[in-house]
Design a protein that fits this description.
Blueprint (H helix, E strand, L loop, with lengths): L6 E5 L2 E12 L6 E7 L10 E7 L5 E6 L8 E12 L3 E2 L5 H15 L17 H9 L6 H29 L9 H22 L13 H8 L3 H4 L4 H12 L14 H13 L2
Antiparallel strand pairs: 1-2, 2-6, 3-4, 4-7, 5-6
Helix pairs in contact: 1-4, 3-4, 4-5, 4-7
The chain binds flavin-adenine dinucleotide.
Length: 276
């Protein structure tokens, strides 16, 4: 993300933003979008970015919805062509947008969820009734393989719920834990959801793929959506990087561009591409 080349150029009391942005959830029905744009090309890549609130009905904004595998069109790509944004729409400091983005990601990765301290603790005995209904509909309620799958899903659901409560509680406490701690819940969701969706399909023996009325539809949609948390808000690999570097203090990933002006990084990348 820090390699953003969407640019914002100051023009009196306004900024002119030009570039494009993809995978924005809900852009086609939003009034405002949050946009990180490069405002300083001579600073290292993380430092020359500014965070803007962009009115999405402004002149120069084109929004293209993207059809997904589920049939929905939740995602969009936006094209910005010299979009005029008032200087009042800058969030945080100019060139300090990366800090704002990190805070936003903390919220997206768990800190923004309903206050877990007010939620009753999950009961280990609570099971998703859909799993039992599905096993019964498939004639597998007594099948030991289906029962194993149900128990696997249930224990992982419970552990995930408790982890979420604990991490969110830590993030909202005044103790200021390492920011990378949000990655634990996000990673748990990213690993668990695809496994859960596959196990549900196994319980239903493929039955959820063909449904009448509502039976099975939920399982099929969950299956198609099961990779969401392994990508949205930063992929599983990025969460593991965050945990290893920011929580465990392991050496940072090697980087060829750390500390270099972004313009020089781009120039070197172009030269490298021309020579290959
Ligand atoms: C359901 C959904 C909703 C989304 N909503 C929004 C939204 O509202 N707004 C928005 O801005 N974006 C949104 N996104 C986009 C999302 O944030 C990005 O897709 C995600 O952060 C991954 O970035 P990328 O697509 O650039 O993948 P890349 O960074 O190109 O990654 C591609 C692959 O390379 C791996 N990889 C990359 N770098 C490393 C590394 N350093 N070490 C190890 N592996 C690495 C990744 O793990 C991944 O497997 C959404 C995505 C999804 C799926």
């Amino acid at each position: 993300m820090a390699g953003i080349t969407t640019r914002a150029v100051r023009d009196g009391d306004e900024w002119l933003i030009t570039g494009s942005k993809i995978w924005t959830s809900g852009a086609s029905y939003a009034d405002y979008g949050m946009c990180l744009a490069r405002t300083n090309w001579d600073a290292p890549k993380h430092r020359g970015l500014t965070w803007f609130a962009v009115p999405l009905r402004a002149v120069g904004v084109t929004i293209q919805p993207i059809r997904e595998i589920t049939g929905d069109a939740e995602f969009c790509q936006e094209f910005l062509d010299e979009v005029r944004v008032s200087a009042d729409e800058v969030i945080g400091e100019v060139d300090q947008g990366w800090t704002v983005a990190q805070t936003m990601l903390l919220v997206e990765r768990g800190a923004g969820r309903d206050d877990p301290l007010n939620m009753p603790p999950a009961q280990a005995a609570e099971i998703d009734p859909f799993l039992l209904e599905l096993a019964q509909a498939a004639g597998r309620a007594g099948d030991p393989v289906a029962r194993q799958a149900i128990a696997r899903i249930h224990t992982a659901d419970w552990a995930r719920g408790e982890l979420g409560r604990r991490i969110t509680g830590l993030l909202r406490s005044s103790d200021k834990p390492a920011a990378g701690i949000a990655s634990y819940w996000k990673l748990a969701a990213g690993v668990h959801d695809p496994l859960r969706a596959r196990l549900v399909m196994e319980i239903g023996q493929g039955m959820p793929l063909v449904w009448r009325g509502d039976d099975g539809r939920r399982a099929a949609l969950d299956y198609l959506n099961s990779r969401v948390w392994s990508i949205a808000g930063g992929s599983n690999e990025m969460q593991r990087n965050a945990i290893s570097e920011r929580v465990l203090g392991l050496p940072r990933e090697p980087s060829f561009d750390r500390g270099k002006p972004f313009s020089e990084v781009l120039h070197n990348a172009r030269r490298w591409l021309e020579n290959t």
